[in-house]
């Protein structure tokens, strides 16, 4: 890997861990629901906003020339070519209910991520502050999991058969879309080992990187949900694709070992 990318990766790790400690230490004071966005299922806690403000201030100090895109609305254009894409709490509903599957996702990206053009992640980290698991990667450097002082290198599952696969997915917040996604799950459940809805797309992708899920798909994800996790999957030897031969986008993300991604896409007919 490139030395500058290793520096960005270290920065992503530090930021994700600091924000992760903030959201878990201050959780009792952070639970107020600040707003519901597209529907009652789409909540924003006070802590989503505090964690994003923390990340924005730190990045302003550390990397004043870089751009920013955050889930809760923080964004500005930079001049360096790097844009930080942050999800201050991915898995907000788990956070609200104290289900230990939420994370802070921090990614350094290149390309047109703020305007919906083509982009890719060059370094990133996803930190689950409850399990103290830090997933991180930079382009060309491999993917790693650091847990209780121990670092292990990650690789995707070696499973080849969809029928023996544990499949992750998630649901968007728009009601009509959720109903369509439920119908897809109904048709898939008889064809796979089982299905998990972990509740954090960032952790879903990192789970694929770690081989804890064989394959994962979701439609309707935003860049902040997937930016860091995508790189963890590809650096762990997997692929992340969208519809047809296209790159992953808002429409569809399928991630896993290449043969399983192909098999899942043919079953999903995308
Ligand atoms: C959500 C989670 C969830 C996924 C949704 C995302 P948030 O992010 O990643 O697993 O199914 O599509 O919006 O709102 O908790 O940051």
Helix-strand layout with pairing:
Layout: H1 3-25, H2 27-30, E1 33-36, E2 43-45, H3 46-62, E3 67-70, E4 75-76, E5 83-90, H4 92-97, E6 103-111, E7 119-128, E8 133-138, E9 143-147, E10 150-153, E11 166-169, H5 175-188, E12 194-196, H6 201-209, E13 215-218, H7 223-235, E14 239-241, E15 253-256, H8 258-268
Parallel strand pairs: 3-5, 11-12, 11-13
Antiparallel strand pairs: 1-2, 3-4, 5-6, 6-7, 7-8, 8-9, 9-10, 13-15, 14-15
The protein binds D-MYO-inositol-1-phosphate.
Residues 71, 87, 90-92, 170-172, 199-201, 218, 220-221, 225 line the site of D-MYO-inositol-1-phosphate.
Beta-strand percent range: 25-35%
Give the count of helical stretches.
8
CATH class of the largest domain: Alpha Beta
* Count of separate structural domains: 2
Keywords:
15 strands, five-stranded mixed β-sheet, binds D-MYO-inositol-1-phosphate, 8 helices, Fructose-1,6-Bisphosphatase, Chain A, domain 1, eight-stranded mixed β-sheet, 2 domains, D-Maltodextrin-Binding Protein, domain 2, alpha+beta, 270 residues
